[in-house]
Design goal:
This protein is an alpha/beta fold. The protein contains five helices and six strands; from the N terminus they run αββββααβαβα.
Length: 145
């Protein structure tokens, strides 16, 4: 009986130490469904006819999606009315292409760093893959990982 009190104090002290020093795993923050870009749902349509045209390696391409995210915690994206001005600032003339192609526009929350943004984007896009395309060694350009 004379050891009961010291044993009880030791057990309580160990329990308090365990609660204070255990690693707490943070639950992953779920991304809202609006952040995903389903490449299969963007369609297989080619670029619209007419000017202005968007080319990559002298091949006409379609602007299918635009993902915008401010870098840093204290910045915000401009309102929707100013998006053509923002797209024009990325590449001169791209606002006219975006008006013709009508891409899917996704607004992401603030990113902590520019190095993390592409990783987050890669994690949330869904790419169509078929076994036949994989056997032939062909991949979707936006989906190569």
């Amino acid at each position: 009986m004379r050891y009961a009190l010291p044993v009880a104090i030791a057990v309580i002290a160990l329990w308090i130490a365990w609660r204070l020093f255990r690693r707490r795993r943070r639950a992953p923050v779920p991304l809202s469904p609006d952040l995903t870009v389903l490449v299969a749902n963007l369609g297989n349509d080619g670029p619209p006819q007419g000017l202005p045209a968007l080319e990559l390696y002298n091949l006409p391409v379609r602007l299918a999606a635009v993902v915008l995210a401010p870098v840093g915690r204290g910045r915000d994206l401009p309102p929707n009315e100013q998006l053509p001005t923002l797209i024009e600032a990325i590449v001169p003339g791209l606002d006219k292409v975006a008006a013709l192609h009508r891409p899917l526009v996704r607004r992401w929350p603030n990113q902590v760093s520019a190095r993390v943004s592409p990783i987050c984007f890669s994690a949330t896009r869904s790419c169509p893959a078929t076994a036949a395309r994989a056997r032939r060694g062909r991949r979707w350009p936006a989906c190569s990982r």
